[in-house]
Structure formats: C-alpha cells, structure tokens
Amino acid sequence: MKILIEIDGLDGSGKSTAAYNVERILSQYDIETRIVKPTTSNDTVLDRCWELSPNFIKNVWPFRALVFAERYRHCRKKIQGTTAEVVMFDRGYLTSLASYWHILGPKNTKKFIDFLENRDKPDIVLFFDCPLNICEERISSRGGAIYNEAREDLIRFSKNFKEILGSSIFDQTEVVNIESGS
C-alpha cells in the first residue's frame, strides 16, 4: 500500500526542500520514496502549447486547468508502476482547488477538479504556511518563481488555501499545518 503525501503551500514556502529532506530521511530507513511534481512540464503537446502561449492566454483559467490536469495525469501514470512505499506530491490537489476556488466557488471547484483530474485524495497533506514577505524574498533570491506569481496571486492563494483547509474537503485526510519562514 502506498502512502500519498501532498506537500503544499505558496511558492517559496519550503515545499521542495521539505520533500527532498523527507525523502533523504526515509531512505535511511530503507523506505522507498518517490517525489513527483505535477506543476513541472512533461513535454507533451499541451505543455509545448503552454510554453509558446503569451501570458494573456496562460491566464485564461480553462486552458490553465487543462494543462495542469494533463500534467497530473502524466505524474499519476509515472507512479502507478512504482514500488515506492511513499509518494510525495510537491504541489497537488490543494493547489488545484486553490487555483479555481475564487472563480467557481467551493462546491463547483471540488466537482470540477474531481472530474478533470480524477485524483486520489492524499493520506496526508503537509501545508507550509509561510509569511508572504518571506515567500517573496525566496522567490526573488532564486531569480523569480517558475510561474512568476504576482503578490496579488500569493495573497489570493494564501486566502484560498486557508478557506479550503477550513472546509470539509479534507475531512478524511490528516492535514498538518507547518509554519515555515525562519
């Protein structure tokens, strides 16, 4: 049985660092672990269209939703045959929900993501709650974020994450809120 762990939070909150540290620690106990990044390009046709699209097209949420749903499906295929006991998603279901929460509302967002991505719910969600100013410092120190989230996006994501975690969506999932930023 695989344990699915989702590591989520704002850009610059420490998700990737934590994932690699957990992987390193578990490997010391001979626990096979796999990290997948659903937000990373998989060189599909849809990904190539995304890379060539101007920003105003990338901001059209149905197009963005399709690209990220395809990336998630690609990651899911990668882990189906793995023997890893622990699979960690560096970003996941919570990010998908937060991306469309303000557009579709709570009830419709969950239906939309469940239909579009057909995700397995994680067993554990590690949510990295980091102050915005520290996230921004980390983003700029690495030369800008992968998605160059603007401050308004960070604020919206932070608000949406907290609303989602306060809802009943993750009732059957262990959610650990980790304050990061030191």
Please describe what this structure looks like.
- With 182 residues, the chain is α/β, with parallel strands linked by helices.
- It contains eight helices and five strands, in the order βαβαααβααβααβ.
- Helix 5 crosses helix 6 and helix 5 (93-104) crosses helix 8 (151-166).
- The longest helix is centred in the middle third of the chain and has 20 residues, at 61-80.
- The protein is globular and about 45 Å long.
- It starts with a strand and ends with a strand.
Compact description:
Helix content is 53%, strand content 15%.
List keywords for this structure.
five-stranded parallel β-sheet; globular; alpha/beta; 15% strand; 182 residues; 5 strands; 53% helix
Low-confidence stretches: none
* Helical content band: 40-55%
User: What does the radius of gyration come to?
Assistant: 16 Å
> How large is the share of residues in beta strands?
15-25%
Tally of helical segments: 8
Q: How many angstroms separate the termini?
A: 35 Å
Overall geometric form: globular
Number of strands: 5
- If strands are numbered along the chain, what order do they take across the biggest sheet? 2-3-1-4-5
Largest sheet: 5 strands, parallel
Helix-strand sequence: EHEHHHEHHEHHE
Task: Report the mean per-residue pLDDT as an integer.
Answer: 78
Structural class: alpha/beta
